[in-house]
UniProtKB/TrEMBL annotation:
It is a multi-pass membrane protein. GO terms for cellular component: membrane. This is Putative gdp-fucose transporter. The chain crosses the membrane at residues 13-34, 46-68, 88-106, 118-137, 143-162, 171-192, 212-230, 242-265, 298-317. Residues 16-314 form the Sugar phosphate transporter domain.
């Protein structure tokens, strides 16, 4: 009987993990394709990528605001951390991070606008490399040789991917540069997030609320400066229900990706999340080549495999190093507990 209960429990856990990972894949891949449809001029005929990014931030901020209000009305049903959006202390601490957040999502969308979905992963594959570089330059933390070798593999795969993509009609240097800038912005955002989280009581959702709200305010002058205002005003489908429906759906996808990412990490582990993200990128590339009827060379596919392999190896090496550091930190405490009291006093 107990064995049957254990088997059922194990089955339920496995099913839950499968459903959460599947949800992450579906939401993440759908988000990329929806954004590509919105950002590509031939699809939407609207030349306003910053405006599209602004609206997605506004949708995410509105959802967070609604959840915040509902948590006060229905505290037993809806849970959302207490927020103080326009507190001077919060504003000054979070605003610099919001600029990085804004740069990250704008650069990612601009990259997706100018490159194909199939090439999008390789175009943004240098995040890990920039993470290692900025960790050393800003935090003075050295990285192991094994991690550096993994980064070298990623850089080689990126170089090969750019070389092979440049032979196709869909290649764009502008999109590739935006991808590099997006990778650098994401790496900086990840590093500074760790510094800002203590100021919001380690609440990821609260930080997401602040970032989306502040970014939606920051992006308004950027839209004007980028010359998008008259493009929006003169857009023929600006009053179309269908246009705003897909815009809102894109914003909902942008919000959902943050939710399912946090859920996947919670149900599995950071390492499993990285592996899942790597596998998802592989599936996304294959789906994109089939959806857009793209034919790629052997070396192009090899570049994707090299980047995926290097990223997966880096994630695994970092996980092993973190486990070893955690065990090493626990050894002195364990030894001290085993020593007699008089020996502890001498120590």
């Amino acid at each position: 009987m107990y064995q049957l209960l254990e088997e059922r429990s194990s089955y339920q856990i496995s099913l839950r993990i499968f459903l959460v990972v599947s949800l992450y894949w579906i939401v993440s891949i759908t988000t990329v394709f929806v954004n590509k449809a919105l950002l590509t001029t031939q699809e939407s005929n609207l030349e306003a990528p910053v405006f599209i990014t602004w609206y997605q931030c506004l949708v995410s901020a509105t959802i967070c605001f609604t959840m915040s209000k509902l948590s006060k009305i229905f505290p037993e049903t809806v849970s959302f951390p207490e927020s103080n959006v326009f507190s001077y202390a919060t504003f000054t601490k979070v605003l610099p991070l919001s600029f990085l957040f804004m740069a990250m999502i704008v650069m990612n969308n601009l990259c997706l606008k100018y490159v194909s979905v199939a090439y999008y992963y390789v175009g943004r594959s240098l995040t890990t490399v920039f993470n290692v570089l900025f960790t050393y330059l800003l935090l003075q933390q050295k990285t192991s040789m094994r991690c550096i070798i993994c980064c070298a593999v990623i850089v080689f795969g990126f170089w090969l991917g750019v070389d092979q993509e440049s032979l196709t009609e869909s290649f764009s240097w502008r999109g590739t540069i935006y991808g590099i800038l997006g990778s650098a912005s994401l790496a900086l955002y990840t590093i500074y997030t760790k510094k800002v989280l203590p100021h919001v009581n380690q609440e990821i959702w609260l930080l997401s609320y602040y970032n989306n709200l502040y970014s939606s305010l920051i992006l308004i002058p950027v839209i004007v400066a980028n010359g998008e205002f008259w493009n929006i005003v003169n857009y023929q489908s600006i009053s179309s229900t269908g246009f705003w429906a897909i815009m809102s759906f894109g914003g909902l996808c942008g919000f959902s990706i943050g939710f399912v990412t946090a859920l996947q990490i919670k149900v599995t582990s950071p390492l499993t999340h990285n592996i899942s993200g790597t596998a998802k990128a592989c599936a996304q590339t294959v789906i994109a080549t089939q959806w857009y009827h793209e034919s790629k060379s052997f070396l192009w596919w090899l570049s994707n495999i090299i980047v995926l392999f290097g990223s997966a190896c880096y994630a695994r090496v970092r996980q092993i190093e973190m486990d070893n550091n955690r065990k090493a930190a626990m050894i002195p405490t364990t030894v001290e507990k085993k020593l007699p009291l008089n020996h502890r006093e001498k120590i």
